[in-house]
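SEVERITY: medium
COMPONENT: batch folding queue
REPORTER: lab tech (J.R.)

DESCRIPTION
The queue accepted two submissions in a row. Attaching both inputs and their returned structure tokens so the on-call engineer can compare them side by side.

ATTACHMENT 1
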Amino acid sequence: MSAHLVLDVTTPATLAFELGVSTQYAVTEALTISIDGWFVEPKAVLDHHGTRLHVLEASVGRLILDYSASIEGRAAAGPADEADLLRYLRPSRYCESDSLGPTAHAEFAGLSGFDLLSAVSSWVGSRLSYVPGSSLPTDGAVRTLLAREGVCRDYAHLVVAMLRALDVPARLVSVYAPGLQPMDFHAVAEAYLDGQWYVVDATTLAPRSTLVRIATGRDASDTAFLNVHHGYAELLEMEVTAVADVLPDDDVRDLVTIG
């Protein structure tokens, strides 16, 4: 996995990057950040579920970030505690499960367990068109459903909102996704079923078993690859790569974990 970012920092800013792989993996990695050719060291901050933030007080200038990682083996997500399960049942900024409750109950009455996960994934996938650039960073699940189009985070937000409306704990995960075309950071949903978190990707754009977790949270507000605070920075370039030794087939009827 790798990421290359170029930013124009026009006023001093606090930058929080979420692009390093989760602590759940055994990883060999390298991260370099420079501003106008001078290398700078970010502060490492650990967030929920192994999410790592690299926080930098950036001065004005051209910032270049390069990250690379290689992982060996797989590792399952950590266990969910009671606070997690309650947190991921609540409506959130981009997953308005309270507003979508009547729709969810009308569409999926009588379904539970694996049948429910499969039905929600298929329903979202069949009602949305994947259109790069079609959504705004402020769009949530309700607006996505009305627009009937979006990108991966919009698909994931709608899946999460519908599942929460049906009392299934669900959350958003940003991932590296080998096989994704065009290559980018990817977002998927995770749903809690029978003591395990299972990945739900209504886009079906990459094999779920090869996904590598980056950040985990309520929605995109917790998992964005970059947040800018106390200043201004413009993203000029971004290149993401993700390669797996083998790209397996992905049967949508299977339950798959990210690990």
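ATTACHMENT 2
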Amino acid sequence: MDSIWDLANPHLRDLALYEPGKPIEETARESGLRPEQIVKLASNENPLGPSPRAQTAMQAAVAGAHLYPDGGGFYLRTALADKLQIEPANLILGNGSNEIIELIGHAFLRAGTEMVTSENAFIAYRLVAALFGAKGIAVADREHRFDLEGLLKKITPRTRVVFIANPNNPTGTLVRQEAIDDFMARVPSGVVVVFDEAYFEYLDQPPDTLRFVRQGRDVMVLRTFSKIHALANARLGYGIARPELVRVLQKTREPFNTSGIAQAGALAALADEEHQTKTKRLTDEGRQYLEREFQEIGLTFVPSVANFILVKVGDARAIFHALLRHGVIVRGLNGYNFPEWLRISVGTMEENRKCIAALRAVLGLERVRLT
């Protein structure tokens, strides 16, 4: 019998799978710990959970679960347009912003085309390029930050899409407005520039990329309800672009791709600015605490502007598994060029302290290996 791979698209054979953060339930099964004994600081989730208003809205929406949702998300797009001072026609909703990354692939990537991004950017960009048979071009970072000058040098007539994560995951670094403006002044026409801003709401002084949308440039800005709004399980993100670009992506979107329950929760979360402020304050305090502790321990880390920190621990695989035995889940970076680093999300202060206590214990056990 022939292998099913003989029938499948050949580029799928070597396509890597995205590896999410290890679930609490899986860790509990493997470690013998109870779920409530485990701290998950692996997936950049909001430790406060969703806004109470969002929870109430989603619970009410369950009563209509037998009905198909509003496929276009009229009320949510209207609310977003009002908040961002754009038009609803500038917006497309996705099953998380990840889906919109895939829609961009459907629309613009195919065999013979190229996608350019940073070597340590969100791995989904490279996976989507490979999925559609396009060539992914990776540019080396500059001090753990996107090298926009390097990206420009790699753009060719075959380039269709450039992905810029800002802040970047997993490094937590930010490209400032001046560098973005210089890049946009020189990027050639015929290239769609995607600014992935999943962590936008955590920034004190965020760059303004919507100016390029208002100018009618071929720019797509991605944002999400998964992070500061804490709706990761509900799966809802959105893209912002000029109407013609949005219409292209709408052609690739599956009908009813976002649930009515998710739309209701997102609409309520968007209006709860108090919850967003509380989350940002908790994140700022927690990030500062973790960075102080890393410095005291003597670990190298990348100063972050997001809700996670990249920290150098030596044998990252060994430290990752040792932390699991202490009931702390962090993120190993398989698929990235960081074999000695872990990414640690900011949790509540109690969770942060447990993480540091476990890390200190593990580093004591692993001291010979680390040195």
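NOTES FROM REPORTER
Residues 4-49+274-370 form a domain with the Aspartate Aminotransferase, domain 1 fold (CATH 3.90.1150.10).
No errors were logged for either attachment.
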